[in-house]
Design brief:
Number of helices: 14
Strand content: under 5%
Largest sheet: 2 strands, antiparallel
Structural class: mainly alpha
Shape: globular
Helix content: 55-70%
Radius of gyration: 25 Å
Length: 403
């Protein structure tokens, strides 16, 4: 095995083991800090559940990066750049914001300010998006000024934080989808063949961070997959969103100025999390439109997210999560696959799989509607016995003949 790939696997393994070991401690600490999610009208879970899993995930990330300092694949990275330290600092900031929110319920404005602060920490130490491509018209590429670069980076990272935060509504959903996204982006960065894209060969923190994220998510799923004994809370969901955003920005943060032809390929590392997390991003957009249309605050909670609707049409929590895993994995393969294997093969495979997923969900919804109609008919018979043909009076009189 490639020694560099092996070192990345070691980072993922350290993260996994530490999260598995520390999560029981987080479960015991959460009630003491008042971070327990009590069942309510907008919640699907039925028992009070601790929600500081994000602290265990942070511990896994920190331990994994600490182990990376001892591995040969990352010697040059730690010697030539402060990117890892910058990402760790931003991760600590967003975890503190999430911890306060989970224990004290921050207002939406204060919570957003904390997210901006964490994203600004990345910018302050030089982790920024330096170019934008405008595909309309002549398709111009623009080198951003420092102010514009800072603004776009902060907006992109905050958007990723909130997408992961909003999709965290079913047991294991956010951790699984982020694991898929992180694995896809890692495969592109570390395994895709080199192209003619005008990228200066530089050491990036992205692969190392993504390895740690995959390990942390898989370790947390040991406790968080349905039935979950602990939730990640905002402490965890915002941490994962920030790390995904930071890894995407890091992957292209130090490129040469690309040509028009090369720009899309150079931008793929940033676009992959967006494509793979299309489900939560779509959900975020729908939630904002829905709440604005009803005259409510865009931060007001409800039970109309995509994952809630899957449960409403008859899926169990576990099955709803697996369906969303399947869609996210399909998007990951469609996005990353063409860079690793024959693109036509990917399309020929992904298309039929997508149709099968759609057919499965449609048939399941039909079965659920039929079950509901059968239940309604049974309830009507119990409430109105005269509507049951078996109780109608027989010709010639008898016990059932009305007087």
């Amino acid at each position: 095995m490639d020694p560099q790939l092996l070192d990345h696997l070691v980072v993922a393994a350290v993260s996994f083991v530490v999260v598995v070991a520390v999560t029981p401690l987080a479960k015991r600490v959460a009630p003491w800090l008042g971070a327990v999610k009590v069942p309510g009208e907008r919640h699907i879970h039925e028992t009070p559940t601790p929600e500081l899993g994000g602290l265990a995930m942070l511990a896994g990330i920190l331990a994994a990066l600490g182990a990376a300092t001892r591995l040969g694949a990352f010697d040059e990275l730690f010697r030539t750049t402060s990117e890892p330290e910058t990402i760790v600092l931003a991760a600590v900031v967003i975890t503190l914001v999430g911890l306060i929110d989970d224990t004290r319920n921050l207002s939406p404005g204060v919570k957003l300010a904390g997210q901006v602060l964490a994203a600004a920490t990345l910018v302050l130490f030089g982790l920024t998006i330096n170019y934008v491509y405008i595909p309309f018209g002549a398709g111009e590429i623009f080198s951003l000024s420092p102010d514009a670069s800072a603004l776009i980076t902060i907006v992109a990272v905050v958007a990723m934080i909130n997408a992961v935060n909003l999709v965290d509504g079913l047991d294991g959903l956010a951790a699984g989808i982020v694991a898929i996204a992180a694995a896809a982006l890692f495969c592109y960065i570390e395994l895709a063949p080199q192209t003619d894209v005008l990228i200066t060969p530089t050491i990036s923190s992205a692969g190392m961070i993504l390895s740690a994220v995959v390990g942390a998510c898989l370790g947390f799923l040991v406790y968080n997959f349905n039935p979950a004994s602990i939730f990640m809370g905002d402490t965890g969901s915002m941490l994962l969103g920030l790390l995904m955003g930071a890894a995407g920005v890091s992957a292209i943060g130090n490129t040469d100025f690309p040509t028009r032809t090369d720009f899309f390929v150079a931008s793929v590392p940033v676009l992959i999390p967006v494509f793979v997390l299309a489900v939560p991003f779509l959900d975020t957009t729908m939630a904002v439109i829905r709440r604005m249309g009803s005259g409510r605050s865009i931060s007001s909670p409800d039970k109309k997210h995509l994952h809630h609707r899957l449960v409403e049409i008859g899926h169990s929590q576990r099955r709803a999560v697996l369906v969303l895993y399947a869609w996210s994995a399909l998007l990951a393969v469609a996005t990353v696959g063409p860079t690793l294997v024959d693109g036509q093969l990917v399309l020929r495979t992904a298309g039929p799989v997508a149709l099968l997923l759609l057919a499965y969900q449609w048939l399941d919804a039909v079965r659920h509607r039929r079950r509901l109609r059968a239940i309604d008919r049974a309830d009507n018979v119990v409430a109105h016995p005269s509507s049951d043909p078996r109780r109608w009076p027989r010709a010639g009189g008898g016990e059932g003949t009305p007087t």
